Amino acid sequence: MVKNRDPFPREGAFIMGRVVDIQNQYIYVDLPDYDGLPSEECAKGMIHISEISSRWVKNIRSIVRINQRIVLRVVKVVPDKGQIDLSLRRVNSAQKALIVKEHKYANKYVNLLQFLTETEGIDISMDEAYKLIGWPIKEQFDFYQEAVEALKEEGEEILDDLENIPEDVKRAFLKIVDENVEVSTVSIIGKLKLVNTSGDGIDKIKDTLNEVVNVIEAPMETRKLTLSYIGAPFYRLEIVSKDYLDAENILSDTLEVLENISSQNNGKFEFIRD
């Protein structure tokens, strides 16, 4: 279960809820990610029939069912009364997809901390894990996905910046992240044809390849450019990134470098995308 520092969600937030009761005019939901009032097992919310759909609703049960998990927008919160008014109709498909994905990463984040508390030789409770690692790291990122992927890519640097973390706890957590987190990537692959008929053409081609490889100044597993020899005059070019837009930007920078170098040393190039 995802844990939130605040017992109630903020107004305007998109959250995940579970349908627990359906009446003629209302849907009642549990919000397991929030503690709610001290007397409650978790925070609870309500959706008025007017907030279920932009169309007229004849039968609420045709839209939701008991135990269904749904993405909702918080309309109003009255903490001292434990009142949370929610809306289903104010959530579009893109927002729903984002929150479903974010909730998946939030659960992943919780699991990483849980694995730490279960590690042999590490004596730490879940509350201590949140205090030492969970909350300080999450506060640096807007989304759980960003936090989880950053831990995979630069976890040692992130943990080194935190205070009062025992070295054995740090090592154990980094090992857990390494074994349990995979960052999804996309690739652009193609053949690069390089030709230079100058007397020192081979050296100029080597210089060109070095410039291409350096398009990404600080390569990492989820953002890199690699070249491999196929057979003169062809080379395999692969660009890896976490999203297509960034990959296309890297390719654009690469082609610009090739254009500039080729115009200066009488070379020619061609990129053939697979």
Structural overview:
With 274 residues, this protein is of the alpha+beta class. It contains six helices and nine strands. It has helices at 93-117, 126-138, 144-160, 167-180, 201-213, 244-265; strands at 14-22, 26-31, 43-48, 69-78, 83-87, 186-196, 224-231, 234-241, 267-273. It has a five-stranded mixed β-barrel. Helix 5 runs antiparallel to helix 6 (244-265). The longest helix is centred in the middle third of the chain and has 25 residues, at 93-117. The radius of gyration is 26 Å and the shape is elongated. It starts with 13 loop residues before the first strand and ends with a strand.
What value does the average pLDDT take? 93
Query: How far from one another are the termini?
Result: 43 Å
Question: Unreliable runs, pLDDT <50, ≥5 residues?
Answer: none
Shape category: elongated
| Classification by helices and strands | alpha+beta
Gyration radius from CA atoms, angstroms? 26 Å
User: Topology as H/E string?
Assistant: EEEEEHHHHEHEEHE
Number of helices: 6
Strand content: 25-35%
| Lateral arrangement of strands in the main beta sheet | 1-2-3-5-4
